[in-house]
């Protein structure tokens, strides 16, 4: 079984405790060079999922700096932003997520980034901004009322003061 399949198997094992998952992911990551972005990303995720955001943050940053592929990079940005929000740093999360959403070519997880942007805005006290982002992200998925929802969402954003 290849390395990623073994990592996926650890994540799929619902019987593992947080500590067991961290240990298993750390062991798999140790098979790679210490600065390998994939290993750093998986280690960050394991700590993050266990509620150890303070330990996850530097690992996410190191993984992004080491250079993740286009499948993992947007995941790492979103997960880092979520971690920052949970650590009480919503402004940093908002900045990271806005950059991801504005990225060209478009991030494959643009809508997911917008969902976490909405959470970060709400946590930071900008409920109208959060609602606007969420609604504007939803608009392309609506079968009807796209124009009305777009206008209302833009009005919410404009009324934020």
| Order of helical and strand elements | HHHHHHHHH
Number of helices: 9
- Oligomeric state of the chains present here: single chain
Q: Ends: how far apart?
A: 56 Å
Compute the CA-based radius of gyration: 18 Å
Quick one: biggest sheet? Answer: none
The amount of helix comes to over 70%
- What global shape is seen? elongated
Given as residue ranges, the uncertain stretches (5+ residues, pLDDT < 50) are none
- The chain-level structural class is mainly alpha
Give me the count of strands: 0
- Beta-sheet strand percentage? under 5%
Number of domains: 2
Average pLDDT score: 97
What does this protein structure show overall?
The termini are far apart. The protein has two domains: 1-68, Alpha Horseshoe (Serine Threonine Protein Phosphatase 5, Tetratricopeptide repeat); 90-161, no CATH class. The model has no long low-confidence stretch (mean pLDDT 97). α4 packs antiparallel against α5 (72-86) and α5 runs parallel beside α7 (110-123). With 161 residues, the chain is mainly alpha-helical. It has nine helices and no strands. The longest helix has 15 residues, at 72-86.
Keywords:
161 residues; Serine Threonine Protein Phosphatase 5, Tetratricopeptide repeat; elongated
Write the layout of secondary structure elements.
Layout: H1 3-12, H2 18-29, H3 37-49, H4 53-66, H5 72-86, H6 90-102, H7 110-123, H8 127-138, H9 146-158
Helix pairs in contact: 1-2, 2-3, 3-4, 3-5, 4-5, 5-6, 5-7, 6-7, 7-8, 8-9
Task: Describe the structure concisely for a colleague.
The chain has 161 residues and is an all-alpha fold. The chain is built from nine helices and no strands.
């Amino acid at each position: 079984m290849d390395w990623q399949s073994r990592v996926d198997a650890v994540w799929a094992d619902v019987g593992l405790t947080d500590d067991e998952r961290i240990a298993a992911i750390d062991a798999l990551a140790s098979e790679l060079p210490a600065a390998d972005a994939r290993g750093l990303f998986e280690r960050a995720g394991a700590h993050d999922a266990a509620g150890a955001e303070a330990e996850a943050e530097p690992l996410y940053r190191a993984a992004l700096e080491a250079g993740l592929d286009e499948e993992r990079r947007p995941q790492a940005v979103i997960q880092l932003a979520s971690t920052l929000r949970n650590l009480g740093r919503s402004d940093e999360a908002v900045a990271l997520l806005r950059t991801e959403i504005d990225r060209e070519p478009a991030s494959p997880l643009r809508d997911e980034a917008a969902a976490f942007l909405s959470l970060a805005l709400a946590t930071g006290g900008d409920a109208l901004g959060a609602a606007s982002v969420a609604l504007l992200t939803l608009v392309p998925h609506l079968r009807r009322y796209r124009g009305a929802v777009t206008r209302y969402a833009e009005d919410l954003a404009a009324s934020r003061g």
